[in-house]
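Handout, page 2. Input:
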Amino acid sequence: METRSKRLDILFYIILTLLAVIFIAPVFIVLMNSFKGQFYITDSPFSLPNATTFAGLENYVNGLRKTGFFSAFLYSLFITVCSVLVIVFFTSMAAWYISRVKNVFTRALYYTFVFSMIVPFQMVMFSMSKIANAMHLDNPIGIILIYLGFGAGLSVFLFTGFVSGIPREVEEAAMIDGASPIRLYFSVVFPMMKPISITVAILNAMWIWNDYLLPYLVIGNKYRTIPIAVQYLQGGYGSRDMGALMAMLVLSIVPVVIFYLTCQKYIIKGVVAGAVKG
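Output:
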């Protein structure tokens, strides 16, 4: 029995190792090709750089020059950080209200948020872009409100499940001590939401940072985010600077990878707690 268990453990680790290699391989290939001359990337994309193919930092310099990367980085950073803060702030309060106030309205509100998760973006993107333009939301500040709308469904779902697991006695004790609802939320409830708040922040940050279609439809070329800026490395008639493209892809994933690695210990805990509806 013990031998069989060890064999299963070995098989389990082998499968996980293979999956890790499969997931890491594309990132490694992009990183490797970012240091090769663009003509060699197409000819031998899976070979390591050598004395002939190595291009140093030339691809990074060309990419920064052609894309206006620093400007795009600031726009992406501003939109991502502000959108994540707004999503976490408002959806956590909405989830607390839905979880603690049980009536027909809150149940309908909850299922409305859940239903919004299954509506494909492609169904509403054209009407959404028209409305955003008519309401003057086609700017870096206006798009934050749009991200709040699209990110609210999953965020409220996770927050509601987590809040349902918080004992009511903790809140009742604070209310007996004279805490107002606002003070109760910010002093007692929200600090207890730290694991799920970080999980929601990570999920939304990765989505917003890498999103191409929504910024392209709403703010377009005027306020280029990183995905839009990278897209402009592709010229007419299918021509593209593959070296600069690889280099900019590497730079674009570094911030979100750092953010993910910093906060990863909260992800599983938050997702498991938030997915269980009390």
